[in-house]
C-alpha cells in the first residue's frame, strides 16, 4: 500500500461512516467557523488547558465549526510534534460536537504533500490550504499547486486566498477553473478584500462550491450576496454575538444583523490594530481565557491595547 492509499485508509476507517463524514463536511461549510488561536504559557509552551477552555467557549457560544492550525494559530511557529499534539487535542476535546477543518498549506507543494502524508485527518471534514506565500506563483502555478494537493488529500480541500499576507491574489478566473476542473476542491475562504471578486465567484461557481469570507468585516455583505458564511477571527473573542450577527444575515434579517455588527465594530477593529493574533490574544487575556503570549517574531499587545480591551469588554458586555 502506497503512502496516499494509507492516508485514505486512515481517513475512511476513522470516526464514523462515510455518510457521517459527508454530513459533517456539509455542515462545516456554512455559517461561522472560528480560526482558533493557539494559547501559550508564560514559558512559551502550548497551553493545552487554555486550548480546552477556548474550544468549549466557542462551541458553547454557537460557532458552527472550528478551523485549527491556520494563520491565526501561529502554526508556522509550531514544530511538527506540537502541530500533531494540538490537532489531536482539539479532536479529542471537541468529541464530535462540531465539524473540524485543519490548516494544511505552504509555499512548497512537495512539503504540503509530505504534511498530508504524515497527518491523520480521519476526524476532519476538510483541510484549509492557503495560496503559496512569498514566492508569488503565477495563476497557472496556483492551479497546478492545488491540482496536486487535491489529488493527494484524503479529505476535501478549501482554498484560502489572502493576498495581503501571501503577496499573490488568486483571481476569480483561476478559482473557478479549479472549482470546475479539480475534484475534491469544495470551496474557498476568500480574503481578497474585494466584493467585486467575490461576486464573480458567486456568479460563476459550480453547484455546491462554497464561497466563505475570510474577513470579519465583509462577512455580512458576502452572506447578503449569497455567500456561505465566514471563517472568523472575532469569533474567538465574542462568538455568541458574532455568530448571532451572521445567523440574522442568513435569515434575511439584514437590518438587525447590521445593527448588532455596529455594536461589535469598535471591538472588531481593535482586534487588528496591532496585528493578528496579537489583538485576539490580548482580548482573550482580558477576559481571563488565556495568557497574551505569542511566539516571535510576533509580540504581545501593548499596555494601551490591553487597556482598550478592558474598557470595550465592559462597555459592550463582550
Strand order of the largest sheet: 7-6-5-4-3-2-1-8
How confident overall, as mean pLDDT?
Answer: 92
- Helix proportion: 40-55%
Q: Report the CATH topology name.
A: TIM Barrel
CA-atom Rg in angstroms: 19 Å
Oligomer: single chain
What structural class is derived from the secondary structure elements?
Answer: alpha/beta
One letter per element, helices H and strands E, the order comes to HHEHEHEHEHEHHEHEHEHHHH
Form type: globular
Residue stretches low in confidence (pLDDT < 50, at least 5 long) are 1-18
Number of helices: 14
Could you give the distance between the termini? 52 Å
Question: TL;DR?
Answer:
The protein is of the alpha/beta class and about 325 residues long.
Description:
The protein has helices at residues 3-12, 18-27, 48-60, 80-94, 109-117, 139-152, 163-166, 172-181, 195-204, 219-224, 239-250, 254-271, 278-286, 303-316; strands at 31-35, 65-68, 100-103, 126-130, 157-161, 185-190, 210-213, 229-232. It is α/β, with parallel strands linked by helices and 318 residues long. The chain has one domain (3-254): Aldolase class I (TIM Barrel, Alpha-Beta Barrel), CATH 3.20.20. Helix 5 (109-117) links the parallel strand 3 (100-103) and strand 4 (126-130). Helix 8 (172-181) packs parallel to helix 9 (195-204). The longest helix is centred in the C-terminal third of the chain and has 18 residues, at 254-271. Residues 1-18 have low confidence and may be disordered.
Amino acid at each position: 500500500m502506497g503512502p496516499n492509499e494509507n492516508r485514505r485508509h486512515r481517513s475512511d476507517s476513522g470516526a464514523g461512516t462515510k455518510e457521517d463524514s459527508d454530513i459533517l463536511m456539509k455542515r462545516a461549510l456554512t455559517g461561522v467557523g472560528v480560526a482558533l488561536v493557539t494559547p501559550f504559557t508564560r514559558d512559551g509552551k502550548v497551553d493545552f488547558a487554555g486550548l480546552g477552555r477556548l474550544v468549549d467557549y466557542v462551541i458553547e457560544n454557537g460557532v458552527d465549526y472550528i478551523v485549527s492550525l491556520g494563520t491565526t494559530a501561529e502554526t508556522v511557529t509550531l514544530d511538527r510534534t506540537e502541530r500533531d499534539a494540538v490537532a489531536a487535542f482539539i479532536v479529542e476535546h471537541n468529541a464530535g460536537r462540531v465539524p473540524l477543518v485543519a490548516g494544511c498549506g505552504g509555499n512548497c507543494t512537495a512539503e504540503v504533500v509530505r504534511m498530508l502524508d504524515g497527518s491523520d485527518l480521519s476526524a476532519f471534514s476538510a483541510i484549509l490550504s492557503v495560496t503559496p506565500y512569498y514566492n508569488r506563483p503565477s495563476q497557472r502555478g496556483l492551479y497546478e499547486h492545488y491540482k496536486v494537493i487535491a489529488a493527494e488529500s484524503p479529505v476535501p480541500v478549501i482554498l484560502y486566498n489572502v493576498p495581503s499576507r501571501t503577496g499573490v491574489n488568486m483571481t476569480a478566473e483561476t478559482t473557478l477553473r479549479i472549482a470546475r476542473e479539480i475534484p475534491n476542491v469544495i470551496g474557498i475562504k476568500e480574503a481578497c478584500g474585494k466584493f467585486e471578486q467575490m461576486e464573480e465567484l458567486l456568479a460563476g461557481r459550480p453547484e455546491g462550491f462554497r464561497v466563505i469570507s475570510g474577513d470579519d468585516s465583509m462577512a455580512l455583505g458576502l452572506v447578503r450576496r449569497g455567500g456561505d458564511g465566514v471563517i472568523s477571527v472575532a469569533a474567538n473573542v465574542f462568538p455568541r454575538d458574532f455568530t448571532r450577527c451572521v445567523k440574522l444575515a442568513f435569515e434575511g434579517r439584514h437590518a438587525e444583523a447590521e445593527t448588532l455588527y455596529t455594536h461589535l465594530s469598535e471591538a472588531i477593529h481593535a482586534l487588528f490594530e496591532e496585528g493578528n493574533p496579537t489583538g485576539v490574544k490580548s482580548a482573550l487575556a482580558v477576559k481571563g481565557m488565556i495568557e497574551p503570549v505569542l511566539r516571535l517574531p510576533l509580540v504581545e499587545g501593548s499596555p494601551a491595547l490591553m487597556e482598550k480591551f478592558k474598557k470595550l469588554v465592559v462597555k459592550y458586555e463582550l
